[in-house]
Specification:
alpha/beta; Rossmann fold; 7-stranded mixed beta sheet; 6 helices; 31% helix
Length: 211
């Protein structure tokens, strides 16, 4: 794994990939909660010239920590696959409700970050899956420290839900790129998904219905 002083080379590599969702190159950024996905996605988006970022925290809810698959499909994936803007309603974790509606244009590169971004149902539509290599225990400790003691009960439930999710639907084995944060920035290397030649493109059976 060789260190990189900037994300420019990775951004160029991702921007050159074939489209995977209509006119969009959908890039998944997965990893444990607290692993640094959001920060990395923001910096990568800047390196891509301001690529939009869809945060899966805005798609999930208290009742559906991982049960957001169909909502993402109908509100986001289907319209983008047709080259149309996606109209979706982010979840407000304070008010515990969805809305107001936002519009997501079919940009050349779209980053989707969050736990489960590399889940089985989403992988066929990804041009590349990136996995944050921060270990689970370290990630969860960082997340708890970030959110404070008042969210301790939420984290207890989250950890159980995340364990169950990755137990039946792991992402890391399918990642084409493994990302590690270092003292000087980020380092990355090919993941098992790249070395195994795992196909990430749509097949006839995976085609999304027209929106």
């Amino acid at each position: 794994m060789e260190p990189h002083q900037s994300l420019e080379s990775l951004a160029r590599e991702l921007a050159a990939l074939p489209c995977s969702l209509g006119p969009v190159r959908l890039i998944g950024i997965d990893g444990h909660a607290g692993s640094g996905k959001s920060t990395f996605a923001g910096r990568l988006a800047d390196a891509l010239g301001g690529a939009p970022v869809l945060h899966l925290d805005d798609v999930a809810s208290h009742e559906e920590l991982f049960g957001w698959e169909e909502r993402l499909r109908t509100q986001v994936l289907e319209p983008l696959a047709c080259g149309r803007p996606a109209h979706w309603t982010p979840y407000d974790w304070v008010e515990c409700r969805f809305g107001p509606e936002r519009v997501l244009e079919p940009a050349p590169v779209l980053l989707v970050e969050g736990v489960g971004a590399g889940r089985r149902a989403l992988r066929p539509h990804l041009a590349r899956l990136l996995w944050m290599e921060t270990p689970r225990a370290q990630s969860w400790t960082r997340g708890r420290d970030r959110d404070g003691r008042e969210l301790s009960d939420f984290w207890d439930g989250w950890e159980r839900a995340e364990r169950a999710h990755f137990s039946c639907d792991p992402s890391r084995p399918f990642a084409g790129t493994l990302v590690r944060q270092s003292s000087t920035g980020y380092e990355w290397s090919p993941g098992a998904g790249a070395t195994a030649g795992t196909s990430t493109f749509l097949t006839d059976g995976d085609q999304l219905p027209r929106a």
